[in-house]
Input
Amino acid sequence: MKTSSCVKEALLYEQAGKKVRCKTCDRFCEIAIGKLGFCKTRMNIDGKLYTLEYGDISSISANPIEKKLFFHFFPGSKALTVGSYGCNFSCPWCQNWEISKSVPTRARNNYISPERFVQLVKENGCHGTSISFNEPTLLLEYSLDVFALAKKEGYYNTYVTNGHMSSDTLSLLVS
Output
């Protein structure tokens, strides 16, 4: 499984006895070897925590920034928006339940590298990026790589989140 482009060691975790403790969101899941956390996107593989959806894009579209619920933030601009799979909530009314309740799989893998994503921002005439559709916190590692590249190209970056992330995650996103 580690050979997939979408499987990458997670940034925020610690050893917890024979388990690992994910420190990406505020659930702080303790995950046994071979098991998934609550969000179903992070797995303990041989004592290390891995994201299973790095760059595994379920949805992509160029959206007006106003759709992101940002008021007076680059009005009239477009953000190339991507999402993946899973969520750290389980809301029965979720409008994107098809992807937020899906588990990443190799069979359905739709990998888009951070470099290609930023190239698509330009090709689609967008002014920025947005990580959305499902909970973007689960795409933390990918988001950080995309945001760094997009910033170098002069694009803005947005995150449409439920906010249920750890303080370590928030620190990485705002740095």
In short: Helices lie at 97-100, 114-123, 140-152, 167-174.
